[in-house]
Amino acid sequence: MPQHNTEKRTIPAIKKMKKRGEKISALTAYDFPTAQLLSNAGIDIILVGDSLGMVVQGRKNTLAVTIDHLVYHTSLVTRAEPISLVVSDMPYGSYHVSIEQTVENALRCVKEGGAEAVKVEGGNKRFPMIEALLDAEIPVMGHLGLTPQSVNSLGGFKVQGKLKQDALQLIDDALELERLGAFSIILESIPMELAKEVTERVSIPTIGIGAGIHCDGQILVFHDLMGYSRGYLPKFVRQYADINRIAGEAITHYIDDIQSQEFPGAEESYQLKKEISELLK
Ligand code: KIV
Predict the structure, then answer these.
(1) By alpha-carbon position, which residue is closest to atom 4 of ligand 1?
(2) Which of 7, 88, 167, 187 is the most exposed place for a label (fewest CB within 10 A)?
(3) Rounded distance from Cα 190 to ligand 1 centre (Å)
(4) Would you call 100 a catalytic residue per the annotation?
(5) Which domains does the chain have, with CATH numbers?
(6) Mean pLDDT of the region 52-71
(7) Which runs of consecutive H residues, i.e. helices, occur in the chain?
(8) pLDDT value, residue 281
(9) pLDDT band at residue 230 using 50, 70 and 90 as cut-offs
(10) For residues 14 and 24, what is the distance between their CA atoms, to the nearest angstrom?
């Protein structure tokens, strides 16, 4: 019997969690079995993140991810019918060209992918697009601080909001996102004191990743939390499992069993009835 609340997480339910002081749990997922796992465990929000470019496609950043990739992976996640709210991450280039194209791309996430909301990175430059999405009845999650789609202009994946002017701009952007009607804001890689200030000033939930304990919720990339990533992990990741080791050991064991003819055994093989087997001799 699951211990957690099994009610479907809707946008109003997520917003109510902040009012009640309940912390929001979020994780990324990109496929059906992972979405089932997260839903069964009681995760509140599943983000189909463009981080799939790095952890699934093996790229060095998220820039090459397309709207087709996002729609496809969102459809795999929603096929699991998770209790979690499913948010599609609009990839780089899908909301930068025109308002019309932004809305068309987000509609694909909803209609073809089954997403219940979309996430858009960035502050004031993106507000016209965000307004248009909200006008089209598409709920929007904002994303401020380190916005990985700006990796080239930022000069790397660096902590943001450390200077007074940047911190004040981030607070303004968060207030404007709230005013426009975004239902939540991801705060990525910013000092915890700044995240606290934003969280206290806005009535919508803040979901932190590398933004400290005061956010209304936390999000991590599934592969990072599971120890299923390669290479460098940011300071803010806590690894809760070691899938690379467990899966690596299982695969080595399988290879050994093939070579020593331990696998397959009789219990993993099909057998003819004795009388038919006799006929083959
Ligand atoms: O793409 C992603 O996975 C993200 C977060 C982890 C916030 O944007």
Answers:
(1) 49
(2) 7
(3) 14
(4) no
(5) 11-241 (3.20.20.60), 245-279 (no CATH)
(6) 97
(7) 11-20, 32-41, 52-55, 67-78, 99-111, 127-135, 151-154, 164-180, 192-201, 222-226, 243-259, 274-279
(8) 83
(9) confident
(10) 7
